[in-house]
Amino acid sequence: MATKNYADAMLDVLSTFMEEDPHFAVMGNEVLGIGPQALQFEPFQRKYGDRIHFPPCSEAAFAALAAGAAMCGQRIFAHLGLAPFSYPAYSTIANEIATARLSSGGLIDVPVTLHISHGLLHGGAAQHSESPLSIYWNLPGIEIVTPFEAADLKGLLRTAIKSDNPTLVVTHAFGYGVEGEVPDGDYEIPLGQAAVKREGTDVTIVTYSLMVGMALEAAAELANEGIEAEVIDLRTLVPLDEQTILESVAKTGRLVVADEGRLRCGVASEIAATVAELGFDSLKAPPARVARMHVPVPGNQVQEAYMSPTAAKIVAAAKEVVGGVPARV
Amino acid sequence: MSLDKKRALESMLTIRRFEETVVGLFLEHEFMTHYHLYIGQESTGVALMEALGPDDKLATHHRNHGHVLARGADPKHALAEILGRETGLNRGVGGTLHMSDPERGFISTSSIVGGSISLATGAGFALKSQGGDAVAVGLFGDGALEEGVSYESLNLAALLSLPVVYVCENNSEGALGSAGGGFPTSVSAVDDLTKIPRTFGIPVDTVDGRSVDEVLAVATRAVAHARERKGPYFIHVATARFAGSQPLWPTLPTGETDISMAWDASRMAGEHEQWYREHDPVLRYARELLAAGEIDQEELGAIDERVRARIADARQFALDSARPAPDAALDYVFA
Lengths: 329, 335
Description:
The structure holds two protein chains of two kinds. Chain A is an alpha/beta fold.
């Protein structure tokens, strides 16, 4: 066990595959972002440079290149960059990667791993702040991994790269520097297993990625006011661990879903709908969604803060839900 | 490369009879979706596949029937696929738009214009990484050069020196074009499509798509270039568009192919006389082989009979095949 950040955890996994698989390749620019962690890439690049490719600004084509290579049995980790840069590759992802297995009658696997970094960036404005999880979740055929803890990233990334399915690994753009205790050696965490990060009896807060941290902050504050929140880190959206969510709601009777993505047709909407359908009898109050307001992100801090989901908004929503008043923040 | 000419002709005729049968099945409402015919391009598919080896990978597109058959797929399973039957090449899930034959090296068949160019580039990447000398082939029409991803992919293939043979089957020559009220065809400010790959430093050959020998010669050169790991190659195949592919929904305006037109010029008449005389690659090749004494009229007739019988069997096989269980589709989403 050692204290490591996301960047270290990612490099651990990528290095292992470089060692295990002589054809494994990494493709992408600024794989570790443009913050201080970017420097951590250099030793990796020196060691495995012939299998690390820095493609032109052609996300559609190099995502397809990775997919086409995967269809021929090669495993590639393709970093598309910030989440909004994956939109030029949307046709590749939606039309090719997500459908190939079904359209071939199950005969063609696409074991590609795509990586994007998402999230509100404090000044990212309208085109550098996307959290498009629900957009990709709406495509059947892609596994979606959304770790919060560095240790989870390490285990989930390994599972994702080994998976015979296309996998979208989504980390937070502010996450590269997030540190945590990371086990040594190689290990895999199965997809579809949420983690209960804090136990509680009054309200369930379901979230993923960096908002797990906000939810834990919110839970600490709620505890000061006598409300015990249970915090669930989904860890993967596809597959979704419905059981852990439903069991928690069965215990607490109340649900707040926190999502850094937009409100409409969002991750929070999907979780709330799932609980309403499958766990309605457990609910003592309507579920609440704490999500990004349904507007493009303004390019100044005041307005960005106004429309962003925060720990304070989670606290407010939880209190309303516990008080029996429907909330939507 | 020595070509078995009779076998090549039989393969072309197989595609032709197959496509004629597809039109019939559509008119009989045996399948409902939009579809695309390879009639008029059989020479390209057959000659190209002759130039390839068993380990080569291919990415085709919506006009895939001829490619899959030329590569050796059984017409039974191809026709069953088009009819959405569980005996189809893709268990009936892909249909005409996504038919592929992974056993014969086909990766996913994309019906998104430009998709095959982008996926073939990835196949080239894998084949180069894996060592060996296999090559990737990307098949597409002229319209694909209107898509941005095609330019990006050519750029990547050139930058990474990938062993990809890009085959542009330009069937826009003589097409009506959208301005003429026909199905939209190549709409480009580039007056010569070969300028596009040249811009990226990719070598290009233009070839008359009606000629088996010429396509084979160019394809052999292109495949050798990629096999020797000299980078990508671009083949621009010029063909006249089949009149039946002018309308949005394909038809058979030239009728079922009358193979006797190969030896009896008096049968070629009417509105489509020029098609029969100059463009129809099956008739042209049959005529060539007859003139060269490679085949005689009787043998040609016998080949046609054999092909007709095979396709009739395939048709019956497809019609007799069960439709897949509705919920079986759920099994194919994830591995």
